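As a warm-up, study this chain.
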Amino acid sequence: MHPAGQDGCVGGVIIRRAEIDDWQVCRDIRLRALREEPQAYESTLEDEQHFSEQQWRDRLVRASTFLAVDHENVVGTAVAFPQDDGDMIIVAMYVAPDARGRGIAARLIDEIRQTAVSRGSSRLVLDVADGNAAAERSYRRYGFVPIGQRVPMRRKPSVFQTRLAYWLPGPGRDVTGSV
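Now compare it with the structure written out below.
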């Protein structure tokens, strides 16, 4: 966990959960991520730029979406979905290049972690595309480890993704998540 002031602000950045009426800012940061880092995501800018307002709102209902806001500018986002197997999967993680190196990714994961623990999830999981070394380093620094699953991206089968996991504390698990 990372220290924050009473308002949740560290270094001018506030991490907050997106509300349904945040659909436009969520759309804007997602499209920016797909435009700037297309190789990192399963989805494409071409697909998502045509989503309707209702599709963006529906995403906010189905998932836990968090925004990193720096002086009213959204500089990062992370989205998590609960899975049937008890995992919480993190998708659509993005921190703007000019905001990297400030611990924002870890703070976004912290918020997802708290949500997952409160839901009783057993672990956080995510997929990182081959060649995305900076993201993989960030996740490993946080405590994610590879679990031996590698799958090709649906949109580009020549690119593989490695599944990483972070075990959460809970009944029958110690604070590191180990059984």
